[in-house]
Amino acid sequence: MGKTLKRSAAFAALARALTAGARGGPSLGARLAALPRMVRATTRGEYDGGLRLALMTAATAYIVSPVDLLPEIPLAVFGLADDAVVVTWLAGAVLAETERFLEWEARRRSVIPGHVVP
After folding, report:
1. Under 8 Å between Cβ of 97 and 34
2. 24 or 100: whose pLDDT is higher?
3. Would the pTM of this model clear 0.85, i.e. be above it?
4. What is the Cα–Cα distance from 28 to 82, expressed in whole angstroms?
5. From CA 105, how far away is CA 92, in angstroms rounded?
6. Concatenated DSSP letters for the chain?
7. Is the per-residue pLDDT at 3 higher than 50?
8. pLDDT higher at 39 or 7
9. Nearest-5° angle of CA 91, CA 23, CA 41?
10. Which residues of 60-79 are buried (b: 16+ CB within 10 A; e: fewer)?
11. pLDDT score of 90
């Protein structure tokens, strides 16, 4: 059930992101431009997206890799189905995580850096 919820959340995020530009949310261009900043903030330890970035990287590697769980040639449509599911999950995950990152950036801008004085 947990995997079903995560998958449905990724599909819901994909649907929200594709319609966000019309509703005033971040555009697809803003989300894609946030990717390098998100990677940089994660590698610096400022943003907590490490596991999610690792999963997205693994999904990207799976898509571009010639090694496939269900090969296309002997299995035809079924061989393409696993790739389609991974691509759909990846798109939803990237869009959901960039939205989360952009919200984190906006909150972070409103905080004044410094030290708490007792």
Report:
1. no
2. 100
3. no
4. 25
5. 20
6. -HHHHHHHHHHHHHHHHHHHHHHTS--HHHHHHHHHHHHHHHHTTSSS-HHHHHHHHHHHHHHH-S--SS-HHHHTHHHHHHHHHHHHHHHHHHHHHHHHHHHHHHHHHTSPP-----
7. yes
8. 39
9. 50
10. eebeeeeeeeeeeeeeeeee
11. 92
Q: Kindly state the tokens that stand for 23.
A: 């509703």
User: How far, in Å, CA of 26 to CA of 75, rounded?
Assistant: 39
Here the tokens at position 31 are 């989300």
Render pLDDT for 43-94 as a digit per residue (tens, 0 to 9).
Answer: 999 999 889 999 999 999 988 877 766 566 666 666 677 778 888 999 889 8
pLDDT at 28: 82
Q: Contacts by 39-46 with C-beta closer than 8 Å and gap 24+? A: 41/101
Q: In Å, what is the CA distance from 32 to each residue of 3, 21, 93, 104, 117?
A: 26, 13, 12, 16, 39
